[in-house]
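pipeline: protein-struct stage 2 | run 1193 | Response regulatory domain-containing protein
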Amino acid sequence: MQSLNSEFRDWVLVAESNYLIAEQLCSILQDWGFVALAAPDMKAAEDMMEKSLPIAALVCTHLNDGLCLALIRRLTRLKIPILILSGSTPEEADIELRSLPWCTKPCRTEDMRQALLNLLDPAVTPKATTGGCADRGDRLVSSPVVPTRFGS
């Protein structure tokens, strides 16, 4: 995975505690033309956002340091579009999360792509996402990924 530096202005935050899922999500987002950076917990996400704000965030409801509410509140205050990715349904979630766009894991990559595109301003959407992006058919928890590095 890539690390955040000054050359990345338009990036997507992937806040996901499961390393393999985070790697897969970042890989999928990169296939679509996004710069994607993963954070396993709220502290890592906050540290990344101190350097640069993401154009969107994919957030799992439970991160390594707890329920994601503090991160969701900050992203909301900053008007950063949020897509929740969770193994639970919106009805099972904290009431603060229920109104957010939601993909229940496992989900089809095409469903996630469409949900993300619905959140984004077309001006920041990579061209790769708008045409010819076939659904790879994988589920978000199905493919093993060779570990590299997590966070940073």
